[in-house]
Amino acid sequence: MRAIGYQTSLPSADPASLTDIDLSRPEPTGHDLLVRVEAVSVNPVDTKVRMRAQPEPGQWKVLGWDAAGTLEAVGQEVTLFKPGEAVFYAGALGRPGTNAEFHLVDERIVGRKPGSLGFAEAAALPLTAITAWEALFDRLDVRKPVPGAASAILIIGGAGGVGSIATQLVRQLTDLTVITTASRPETAEWSRGLGAHHVVDHAKPLAAEVERLGIGAPGFVFSTTNTDKHLAEIGSPLRAVSRLSMIRPLSMCRSSSRRACPLIGSSCSRAQCSTPPIWPSRAGS
Fold first, then answer.
1. How many Cα atoms within 13 Å fall on the side-chain side of residue 130?
2. Which of 15, 95, 117, 264 has its CA 20 to 30 A from that of 153?
3. Model confidence pTM above 0.70
């Protein structure tokens, strides 16, 4: 099968940093699905793994996590899918990636592709959507009010990939007031179009930007980018005992803010820890 891989971690400008290769087509066993890949998307994790993960001598490392495609075959223990179905998913960190003609993935981290989306659109969703969902509903528990805080969420980096999804999820599934951050007119307009009630400028002092809204300290903060830069500022609007979730782990114990309850998670943890399926009867729509 055709694939794209590398044998040595090299700068992206080097012609050998990614190479067209031919590999043996994998065969599904157990809970694995064999997917004919129709579309993939590129995420920051691809660039980080490419520079840090060195394959064994003579072997190829294939990158790629987000994918959408059609099932070619299934393992003997598969119960949730059958060949011919269209699916989308984010693969597992410790397995060969999706930048290949065929790909193996555990059925328990796969969903049926929504019929309203094409393959390319579906492939653009998994990592950003999983990250946003788990941060909001598994970690922050945004449906549970924070006593003494405003019924609001501050999403730092609201115009980015994860922030864009998070904004829509909060507006559609909760009654929270959504405050996002953006620093340019076009990104602020984009964020408002996705449902943000207020957009503040993260290039300015963040605490003052939130305070001028006059709605009180938001009960939730979801920092999707530059958390180190904004952490001290986050401490000011969080006068209540609020909940803070962030994508990027950092040395939080030295945080200047003791008012926020920090929550860190990984969007790859379900695949790495083989947790049970989240949506065992999912159907595309």
1. 24
2. 117
3. yes
